Automatic annotation (TrEMBL), chains A, B, C:
Protein name per UniProt: Trimeric intracellular cation channel family protein
Places the protein is found: Cell membrane
Family: Belongs to the UPF0126 family.
Record's GO cellular component terms: plasma membrane
Keywords per UniProt: Cell membrane, Membrane, Transmembrane, Transmembrane helix
Keyword Cytoplasm in annotation: no
Species classification: Bacteria, Bacillati, Actinomycetota, Actinomycetes, Mycobacteriales
Topology term for the membrane: Multi-pass membrane protein
Top-level lineage group: Bacteria
Residue ranges of the TM segments: 61-80, 87-108, 114-135, 147-165
PANTHER family: INNER MEMBRANE PROTEIN, UPF0126 INNER MEMBRANE PROTEIN YADS-RELATED
Main location: membrane
Occurrences of domain Glycine transporter (ranges): 4-78, 89-162
């Protein structure tokens, strides 16, 4: 279950990274590097924080192969996607939801405190996207104006809460993923966002 | 002592990160993400280098809560700070001094060589600020023209030297922090900096 | 052998980082920070992935001293280098080839899977340069249009293949380094690169 969800999230993030690489007019390898980094970056960050050496996403070939395959597919097929850009944002939301819950669950399995598990889940969900945006020299999406980190924290929180309440295993993963993804999608489609800094007659 | 100093440095760095987030017109979450990342980023980097899993700054809630509280305070109160920007630079200098010495002391407690302890102290002091500047897509302050890394290296060196000479425990921390912070403040107020590359009739 | 190659790669990368720092008009410390980070960044990334704490490049002073010495040399002597910029690109190619093979060999010595060893070799070869480009706020060279990651992957693959086929120890390192460096140099001098994304009447 954890492994399958992990691959789904990897594929979604890799496709989002490769799409941005195509938009930036990178060549074949550049597109694949951004796609693979985005796909496996969150998992590598999680494993570094938890002390899993070498990181699972490098040590098991399916993660890399899935990330590479989806990057290549985007490279070849992107002209057909044109108006499918929204599909990528939805896949990205799915990947975020998946990684928030699998990250938190993995942290709990490594005996992290519940507090650390929530933060590590959120970092796993966010890490790949931040690496992507830093690589292509953009200010990370995470910092822009729609809910991104809030759903990630909520998904991780649900996994930890279900574990503390001893809800049988896969329900926390399912509930956390669904709720985090749905909240992010709702924020995207309805333009929800958080308030800006207050302004009281300020210049600059 | 180490823990208290760590929280002081976290608060100072978080406030500096949140201020830059406000200046970049990020929303509530963006400001908090930059603030928290800046506040706990140096400590996470230190723990990754020393193999402390999961990193202390994630595993203990006070660090996160302090970083979040100071980010929120800056978000809400920044219009009152206007001319207090220099206060932030001074707090940043204090955070740098604190993290240089606590980073070096933590490295020594983990049996790092004295050589590695100096470098890890400096990386701890510098790491949060570099993460902050990379997140908001600016060239790191560290690379700009005033003394930044020199005081950090000096503070870490003092901790290591006091340890080698068997000076009783907290004096190295106190002396290193005070001297590193004072040197950075002096550099800021007096415009000290290091020489630029020599130019002998060079174009470009 | 591994240690000597490591120092050669460190020196080459440090010189390339310092040259970019000079080009960006940083001061003495900025140039040294970029140079040292580029020189030892790949090795630190490798050791973080493999769980070597503290990282070898921080724990052994020769790496740091070599990186610092070559950064200082570039800072002082760059006006004499003017037309020697191509020398830097060739040194960078050498550093990439060296780190790809030593990274893969180190990963194998730490019982990484052959699959992980190839990826870790490539990440070691690429890591320092990516850190350099992120620090100076440029889109990483890795993503630009000439073969960069392909030679790194090939060099690491050769080390792993020779190990699997039980070829006596240093031959894999030598063959991998020579072939990776030669391929990168050929790509640079002949303008080889990989195809761009297909375009079928696409706007934007």
């Amino acid at each position: 279950m954890l492994t399958t969800l992990d691959l789904i999230g990897t594929a979604a993030f890799a496709a989002s990274g490769a799409s941005i690489g195509v938009y930036k007019r990178l060549d074949l390898f550049g597109v694949c590097v951004v796609g693979v980094t985005t796909g496996i970056g969150g998992g590598i960050t999680r494993d570094l924080l938890l002390g899993v050496h070498p990181p699972t996403a490098l040590d098991r070939w399916p993660n890399f192969v899935v990330a590479l395959a989806f990057s290549l597919a985007v490279f070849l097929l992107h002209p057909l996607m044109g108006h499918v850009q929204s599909v990528v944002l939805w896949l990205d939301a799915l990947g975020m939801g998946v990684f928030a819950t699998t990250g938190a669950a993995t942290a709990l399995h490594h005996d992290a405190e519940w507090w650390a598990a929530i933060l590590i889940g959120a970092i796993t969900a966010i890490g790949g996207g931040v690496l992507r945006d830093v690589l292509v020299n953009e200010m990370p999406l995470l910092l822009h104006r729609d809910l991104y980190a809030t759903p990630a924290l909520l998904g991780a929180l649900i996994v930890v809460a279900f574990e503390l309440w001893s809800v049988p295993y896969p329900w926390g993963l399912v509930a956390g993923t669904v709720i985090a993804t749905a909240l992010r999608m709702a924020a995207l489609t309805r333009g929800w966002n958080l308030p800006s800094p207050p302004q009281w007659g300020r210049t600059s």
